[in-house]
Amino acid sequence: MGNKLKHRDHPPSINVRKTQMALHVGPLPPAEELSRYGECVENGAERLFHLMEIQSAHRIELERTLVGRETSFALRGQVFGFLLGLLGLGGGLAAILAGHDWAGVAMSGASLVALVTAFLRGRANPGRDPAPPPSP
């Protein structure tokens, strides 16, 4: 039985793998990395700052536009709600003056109940996101 493996006097080899990860959260990289941007690309750090400034100005303008649209959308809803409430109350008053007492009271009462309900729901959920405005 002549084919026996010869035992070598070497220690067993061990494979080691090292993985290194870095995580950065924020608009700009750390200062050490900024200096390396300048080494890789001409004025790299300055260009990166400029891009960040442009993006920041763009974001501010978008938020300003969005807040303005949401405000006008909310105001328009309040105006239309007020006009519909007046229309309901005026219709009820007209029905009462025309001799339809119960119909006029029902119409006016329903208008008041709808307005009060909408008001109370708005007060109960002040932190709720408003409905998005329709896209132009």
**Share of residues in helices:** 55-70%
- Structural class by sheet pairing and helices: mainly alpha
The share of residues in extended strands comes to under 5%
Q: Give a short account of the largest sheet.
A: none
Structure description:
- The chain starts with 30 loop residues before the first helix and ends in a 12-residue tail after the last helix.
- The chain has helices spanning 31-40, 44-97, 101-124.
- The model has no long low-confidence stretch (mean pLDDT 82).
- It contains 3 helices and no strands.
From the structure above, extract its key features.
single chain, 136 residues, mainly alpha, 3 helices
Give a concise summary.
By secondary structure, the chain is mainly alpha-helical. The chain has 3 helices and no strands.
